[in-house]
Amino acid sequence: MLNEKNKSLLNEMRFYIQSHFSVSDTKASEILMELEDHLLTAQQEGKSFEQVFGQDPKSFCNEIIQELPATSKWEQIKIIAPIVPLLLMWRFLYGFSGELTISLYENIVYLVLSLALFYVLFIILRAGSFSSKRNSFWMMYGLGTFVLLVYVGFFLLSGRILPASPSLVLHDGAAYMTAIVSLVVILYSLFGSLLNKKR
Amino acid sequence: MFTQMVRGVLEGCLLAVIGEEETYGYEIMEKLASSGFVFAREGSIYPLLLRLEKEGTIASTQRPSPSGPNRKYYHLTLKGEQQLQLFRENWNELSQSVNNIMDRNYRKEDDA
């Protein structure tokens, strides 16, 4: 088992390397597995994290990223694609109220905005990797508020700016069914991996 | 220039170590260190291993390790063996030339 310091620094490296969507995820996982194995053996022999990865782990990670093969556009789409239905489906939970209105333009803008936010968040979090805990805490707090404000702003303004039609309105049974299916899909995507592990 | 030279030499030595027998990252580093290579950080071999694998001079297989995570064992490909042979020849030639010059300088200093 890695000690606390090694584990947390390795996790930082993991996030930093894997948040570069331009590199192959399979190869990135492979090299991270090797680095973990190396660090574990080094730790057992009484060596420090710095002896293995140097004083500046960020620059070490950059060297690794430079040598990792680039990912194909198809692979990038495969990573992002599952997020799209999830982003939409939690909005369909509103169907539990008995009436669900799905407005085309509002949903398109919402999707584009969410994906853009997602991308910006990753870039900011990546830039903040390897900073001290205190900075990270304030950064998370700031980012959380920022995301919240963007969404609140969007929902307040979208009704006024964007045309309401074309839109799909579902009542009673149809609305409940849509909401239930959405809930199942969301829960499965969140906890499905746990179920698979138990089996 | 010095860094580039060391990197080239290190690549050749990595091929030689992997050519001896199938081996993994930590063991490669230990073998290089026991031969006198000094590492500012041990992890430096990994970007090189990635590059060699990308170029197709080495290949790997994954097997469970006693420490837990899977371990990647490297071996030379045919291209790697040819590359190693080429490095040996070049190195012999280069080291001989360098030694000749260094010896001549050394003798001159002695005479003076």
TrEMBL record, chain A:
Family matches, as Pfam families: DUF1129
Matching InterPro entries: DUF1129
The organism's place on the tree of life at top rank: Bacteria
Keyword Transmembrane: yes
Transmembrane segments: 79-96, 108-125, 137-162, 174-195
UniProtKB keywords: Membrane, Transmembrane, Transmembrane helix
Stated name of the protein: DUF1129 family protein
Protein's organism: Paenibacillus tritici
Lineage: Bacteria, Bacillati, Bacillota, Bacilli, Bacillales
